[in-house]
Records
---
Amino acid sequence: MKLNDMANAKRKLATQIESIQARLQAIEATQQTNEFNFDDSALARAKSAVNELEKRLEVKARVAEMEGNLTGAILPAVEPGRDVVKEFDTEFGHDNHKSTGKTGDKSL
């Protein structure tokens, strides 16, 4: 009887050892997959750079649109001999253009 008890205890211990070894292998496999740490910082920098380029492109598009609007505007032509200051003074009631002849004394 004692011999049978010893054989059963041996089988039980062998089963426990196999279970412990299987658990150890599972833990080691998990550790190996955790060792692969991906460097997300390079990806984050690339995404940030792309976003910055998109913003710059949008700003350039708006500036180009605004410049196009300004260059398409029709500006009044000023004839070379025309005295615009005198016309302004006459229109708005300021007749200081003829007062002293100094350019610094002109009022707008």
Note: The chain has three helices and no strands.
---
Amino acid sequence: MAGYRDLTDLQLALLGALWDRREATIAEVYESLRGRNKVSRKTVATLLSRLEKRGVVRRRTIGNEASYAATVSRRTVLIARMVAMLGAVFESPLSGPAPHLVERGEIRAGDVARLRKLLSKAERDIRGDS
């Protein structure tokens, strides 16, 4: 399955609506996003269809209407995106196979320790420490 690191902000907003509701129709997702994003119902439907093809959401038909639910947790997406961002910024070994391990739920204690070191380095860099 494709990674979660390349999800767009709008795709993440769609997922956020699904995570908040657990399951929602296109109309419900559209209403949830309408105040924050300039998006049409057609765009919501198209993006949900693309996310379904990627395996990020699943569709269930109820009568004449489709209902969507996320197949991946908010936590999993957040971790994959943070690992990718930190790996890109700090040229970490976590930018290699580790994001794929996160997607499969195979984080080990050593991965967490390396991530903590990267975060500590980021804090030092922000403060200007060496």
Note: The first helix runs from residue 9 to 21.
---
Amino acid sequence: MNETKKVINPIVEIYQDEIMSVLNNKPSQYATVTFTKRGNGQVRVMNLTLRYSNPDYKGVGMGYNPEDKGLIRVKDTQAHKEYLNGKAKKDGYKCIPLDGITQITKFGIDYIVIS
């Protein structure tokens, strides 16, 4: 009988002010983030990276600085892949609300954001 074992990631609780240090922690530049969108309250799961070479990555040309609005600029890796393959119109660069992040999975560890 062929049994599939489910891998359970270790869970670490972090505070809101620790989010950026987890996301910026090397060696991996990729993470999966669960967050709540501000506009409609929708919960979203996104595979992303903070390391990219987009000229607008610091908000230049955007008309506003994302940090001033509590946002972080990321590259949605799935949306970017679809863009490169001609399946999407947008390039995958997005802003997500820092205060809406509830979970980060990185290095095989689930970081749960607590208040």
Note: The CA atoms of residues 103 and 112 lie 5 Å apart.
---
Amino acid sequence: MEALEKIYGGVINSTGALLYPGAPLGAEVFASGISGWDMWMIGSFMPALQLMMSEGFMKYMAFEEDPGPSYDWTTFNFDTDPLKMASISLMIDATDPDLSAFRARGGKIIHYHGWTNMALNPTMSVNYYESVLNLMGVEETMDFYRLYMVPGMFHCAGGAGCDNVDWFASLVNWVEDGIAPEGLIGSHIEGGGVTRTRPLYPYPAVAVYTGSGSIDDAVNFTSSGNKGLSATAKGSPLELKDSVRNSIHINMDVVSCNAGFRPVRYLR
């Protein structure tokens, strides 16, 4: 129980200040025989990826002077060592909320993150997006940057949620045709077939069940913001198959910001 409290409670220092959010609830679920904890938190057939990546980072990247291969990560001091990582943080952490230059160039961002991502905590994306909203204003931000949080999606893809979305086509429509994304259809695939569809809405809106019809059909959901499905949120499961195949490639290969979330960015 103590271990679980630490995993879900997040990283804190001796004063109780939260340095990093706890693991997302729901990532433990098995989807198609795989848990969100597999590979990242639990090394079933190999050392956990979180441990391997973090250990290498601490040895050769984190500090001004690399401690080298002899560094013992268990000696990390949560009160004093974070300050020693300030230089690398400036280089790789996407924490600057001022995106005015990007917006001025006509850039658009569709930023998505799975709520059950064990590799990169979803709270990071929410916190960053809210910092942009606070600095640049809600209407101004929504004009060029929208965040989609995907329930049940693991790292980039997979999980129990509807993780297959044609992000790139939506981005092209926004940049080239001025059609801002609202509700986008996500689909869940098992055994090569679509078993569930669900609309995804720009944060903070969420999909709400209308109270009737199959919960596996996107048409039976609406937005918590009462916008309903937009013109971009359409398509039966059969019609979605081609876009699903395309979005699998996009999920794995789109450019990602350094804080660990994955926005699809496009300048015309």
Note: Helices lie at 2-9, 49-60, 86-92, 100-104, 122-136, 138-142, 167-177, 241-253.
